[in-house]
């Protein structure tokens, strides 16, 4: 699986840690930055990862800032993106099963690296359950086309 990664300065170290996890799990990590811990703006990376996922150049994405809130807001402005801020394994699993989320947003200040790695594993292995949820995702997609 191709997984696009992005983080601002607050999420830089966690992003670096997750890159090696993705490699060990057999996924291709596409690093969209930032590449240092110097102060930067989270929307730049949310838009870069969102564009990769929304256009199909990456299967999934992971975005990291201090809380994950800014990244999720910014990424969800792009067509085809369903970015979900997840703080525990249940949220990560349901974001995939029910919402077909394609970008996982994490808060580096809110999660331990070990917890973040567990969320990534759950997010990547969980499939969308379709069924009644397909209708709901279709409504979101249709709305995106009207804007």
TrEMBL record:
InterPro entries: RpiB, RpiB_LacA_LacB, RpiB_LacA_LacB_sf. The keyword Isomerase applies. The active site is at residues 65, 98. Keywords: Isomerase. Coiled coil: none annotated. Its EC number is 5.3.1.6. It is an enzyme of class 5 (isomerase). Gene3D superfamilies: Sugar-phosphate isomerase, RpiB/LacA/LacB (3.40.1400.10). GO terms for molecular function: ribose-5-phosphate isomerase activity. Pfam families: LacAB_rpiB. GO terms for biological process: D-allose catabolic process; pentose-phosphate shunt, non-oxidative branch. NCBIfam families: PRK05571.1, rpiB, rpiB_lacA_lacB. Belongs to the LacAB/RpiB family. This is Ribose 5-phosphate isomerase B. It comes from candidate division WOR-3 bacterium.
